[in-house]
Structure formats: structure tokens, C-alpha cells
Amino acid sequence: MCARAATAPSYSGFTIGQIRGIMGRMPELTRQKKITFAEMRASGVGGLLIYCSDYKCSHWTAISGDRWADDVRLSDLEPKFTCQACGRRGADVRPNFHWEADARRAKAPGAADHGMPSP
Ligand SMILES: [Zn+2]
User: Fold this and answer.
1) Which residues surround ligand 1, an ion (CB under 5 A)?
2) How far is the CA of 48 from the centre of ligand 1 (A)?
3) Residue 73 in contact with residue 101, Cβ under 8 Å?
4) Taking phi first (over 0 means left), then psi (-120 to 50 degrees means alpha), and beta for anything else, what does residue 12 get?
5) pTM, 2 dp
6) Digits of tens for pLDDT over the chain (119 positions)?
7) In angstroms, what is the span from residue 79 Cα to ligand 1's centroid?
8) Nearest Cα to Cα of residue 40 among 102, 104, 95, 100
9) CA of 78 to the centre of ligand 1 (A)
10) How far is CA 79 from the centre of its chain?
């Protein structure tokens, strides 16, 4: 009796066929989508968050993305950064979705401590 001819074995509820299907899509699902500055700006984001690739260091900084051209991918920048805290090369580059709000707050006239009328 041939075991292979039997019904497909399942691992954690998936048939082999389903596992193959999932594996085939893995690169798209697991890898971060490679977006360009054009796409990032189109969604109203002008800034970047740069994270140290060493999770034990976890140093990060927020910068403006103005200096890069529209066709540059965020992932293209990752090897170009060196962590200022630990000196490790390479970083994780993410769009900074709070950039516009932060920039507006920084530029707002009479913000924070100057906004309160003196008693
Ligand atoms: Zn670091």
C-alpha cells in the first residue's frame, strides 16, 4: 500500500497544497513593501524615521526626506546609514506618518510656552 496515494497529510490544518500556496506568496507578505519617495509623498508623508538595525541599540532619529529624488526607494537608503549611537552600518527606513504634524507644530508661531497669556 502506497502511503503517498492516500489523502494529503496536513500540518496544523493546512494541506500541502495550501502550504505551497502560502510559501509562494511569502516574499510579498513578509518583506516590507518597497516604496519610493514619490509614493511616500503622494500619501502626504515628507519625513523618514531611521531605526538602528540592532534591536538592542534601538537608536532612532526622524529626518526630512526632501533631499532624495522621487524614484529613490526607501530601502535603497538603508545601507547608507550608520548609527550615531553604536556605529552599526545599515538601518531600517520607514515613512514618518507624523512628520507633517510635527513640522507644523515646530513652525507654529507662538507655540508651547509663548502661547499662554501671563497671569
Ligand atoms: Zn545603534
Assistant:
1) 52, 54, 57, 59, 83, 85-86, 88
2) 17
3) no
4) left
5) 0.60
6) 555 555 555 455 556 555 555 555 545 444 456 899 999 999 999 999 999 999 899 899 999 999 999 999 999 999 999 999 999 999 999 999 887 777 777 776 654 444 455 56
7) 13
8) 95
9) 13
10) 14
Q: 3-class SS at 50? A: strand
Spans of all domains in the chain: 1-31, 37-108
Sign of torsion over alpha carbons 90, 92, 95, 101? negative
Residues with Cβ within 8 Å of residue 53, at least 6 apart in sequence: 78, 83, 88, 90, 91, 92
Ligand 1 centre to CA of 50 (Å) is 10
